[in-house]
Amino acid sequence: MKRRDGILTSLVCLTGVCLMATAMGLLSGSLSRNPLHAQPISSPPMKPSVPPAETSPADAAAQTGQRWLALSLQDAVRLALQQNLDIKRERLSPQIASTIVDQERSIFDPLISLAANLSQTQALPENQLVTTEPSTGEPVTSTIAGVVSKDAEVTPRLQQTIPIGGFYELSFINTASDLDPASSGAVTRIANPRHESHLTLSFTQPLLRDFGIQVNTTFIRQAQKTTAIAEQQALQAVLDIIFVVQQRYWELLFRLRELDARLASLKLAEQFLAENKVKVELDVLPPVELLQAETQVKFRQGEIVTAKAAVQTAADLLKAVLNLPESEETWHIDIRPTDGLSVSPVPTLSEDEQLALALNNRPDLAQSQLDIESRLIQRNFARNQLLPRLDLISSGSLSAFGGDSLEGAENLQDTDGYQWFVGIQIEYPLGNRFARRRLQQRNLEIEQGLFDQRILKIVIGTEVRQAVRDIRAIGERVTITQATTQLAERQLEGEQEKFEIGLSNSFQVLQLQGQLTAARIDELLTAADYNTALARLDQITGTVRYGDVSTRFKPTQR
After folding, report:
1. Which residues are 119's β-sheet partners?
2. Is residue 35 in a domain?
3. What secondary structure letter does DSSP report for 175?
4. Per-residue pLDDT for 365 more than 90?
5. Any residues with CB less than 8 A from the CB of 353 and at least 6 apart, and which?
6. Phi-psi sector, 205: left (phi>0), alpha (psi -120 to 50), beta
7. 343-364 residue pLDDT tens
8. Beta-ladder partners of 343
9. What are the angstrom distances between the C-alpha of 470 and each of 349, 356, 464?
């Protein structure tokens, strides 16, 4: 009887050992095929060791009828550049700024105007006529009626400010007048009605203040600088969104792989519980051993619930930056990243080279330089306003008349009537405090802008060095987490062998299972952090690395 019990016990133990060996063989087989454990950080892309899911995400989605979207990182970046609302908004800023440039240029547009008027005047009597009555010889007084004047005038004008500061006005005045009576005593009008034409050209040119193309195009050049700054701001928005897309893409991929790791951990705990139940039924293990396994199964089920919620949150964040949720149903699209959570090694990073790249590409540094240039333009204008106003004023006109409008205009070539004059006008405010203080203000603003630029360069240098250090540190952590996962696998395997021969208990085995899951998740997180750190370095240096996506984005200006 004892021999039979001993044989039975041996068979049960052998069966348990075989089952565990089979499970560990499958696990170690999947791990041994993983490049992560066979290659160092300088090797080709490495993927963290996570047991593969029994059903692919796409197949699972198809089986449940759920809509899903397979998305690579490059496709996600391209989609964000097309759809993201922040980028669409920022792309409008250069176009808005360019309209201001045209508004400022309009100061040099010619202005055409036309004035026309009609008038009639009844003059009050001013004189009287005294005559002698022939028959009596007595004086007779009569009042001379006031003159009735009917006038009309049509005046087209052309005005324009020229870039050197001058202003001219060309006017062609045409008048028509009809007097009643047309004569007064022995004096009679040459023509009644009388049509006069006057061609007048006046020109004013500043010689000191407001003189020169640079001064008079100040606001145009400022608007151009504003447009260039808006373009750099749009570029910064592109770089920021690309980084956010990469960050959230790797976060979603990590959460999916974390869920896979926790599902594998639950499966391992359930297998261990099933084996222990068999052993308890055969009186190989005491019933108390089941309590540890059952507790761990429930605990890991709770972790899966949390992991699924984290997957949904990460997916929603990615959908938001891609501007997918145009409708309520869009939120239910299942995004499935097609890129692997692998560590792609990069060449040795030089802090000096990355800093030089950042100083050449950073949009915020370009904005700082453009702002200083804009302030220099303002300073030069303020310097010109210190000068006194000395204007050259000139005017010339031709006049002619005739019986009708055509005759009056034709007679201008006879130059019977003309006028011209040339003069200067000087103006200077005593003390000139406004102009002097304005110039002082502009000089201080330039000095302030230079300090801001120096501070920004220090910040850029700090960010670049920190980003390079992060990549190096996380790269070392990748190697460490790989080794940690390998050691955790071997430790669990050894503990299970000890458990099979009665030298360990369920608590120790389950604890090492949890440590293995934690090591796998830490390895996954490190891989995601490494890729995010690379994306952060690209953002800091102003670089984009995606195929047909330009390495320098410049919004189209209308």
Report:
1. 151
2. yes
3. E
4. yes
5. none
6. beta
7. 877 768 889 999 999 999 999 9
8. 46
9. 11, 18, 10
Q: Which amino acid is located at 249 in the chain?
A: Y
Burial class (CB in 10 A: 0-12, 13-18, 19+), 124: exposed
d(CA 380, CA 218): 9
With beta carbons less than 8 A apart as the criterion, state whether 514 and 265 touch: yes
User: What residues make up the domain containing 267?
Assistant: 13-97+227-368+454-541
Q: Has residue 18 got a pLDDT over 90?
A: no
pLDDT in tens, 5-17: 443 343 334 334 3
Q: Which two tokens stand for residue 539?
A: 């953002």
Predicted TM-score (pTM) of the model is 0.77
Q: What is the pLDDT of residue 130?
A: 65
Of 253, 240, 263, 118, the C-alpha closest to 177 is 118
Type of residue numbered 438: R
- How many separate domains does the chain show? 1
Closest to 38 measured CA to CA, from 538, 536, 356, 482: 482
Asked whether residue 557 carries a pLDDT value surpassing 90, the answer given is no
Specify which residues 122 forms β-bridges with.
148
Residue 451: Cβ within 10 Å count: 10
Kindly state whether residue 465 falls inside one of the protein's structural domains.
yes
The per-residue pLDDT for 191 is 63
For residue 182, pLDDT beyond 70: no
Residue-wise pLDDT for 399-408, tens only, equals 887 767 676 6
Which one, of 421, 420, 394, 387, lies nearest residue 167 by Cα?
394
* Neighbour-count burial for 352-366, b at 16+ CB within 10 Å, e otherwise: eebbebbeebbbbbb
Q: What's the CATH number where 352 sits?
A: 1.20.1600.10
Give per-residue burial for 390-409: e unless 16+ CB within 10 Å, then b.
Answer: bbeeeeebbbbbbeebeebb
Question: What's residue 534's pLDDT?
Answer: 93
Contact 166, 204 (CB under 8 A): yes
User: Is the predicted pLDDT of residue 44 greater than 50, yes or no?
Assistant: no
Residue 39 lies in a domain: yes
**Is 265 within the bounds of a domain?**
yes
**The two structure tokens encoding residue 530:** 């490494």
Which alpha helices (DSSP H) does 84-168 contain, by range?
A: 85-105
Residue with the larger pLDDT of the pair 500 and 393: 393
CA 313 to chain centre: 25
* Residue 484 φ/ψ, nearest 5 degrees: -65, -40
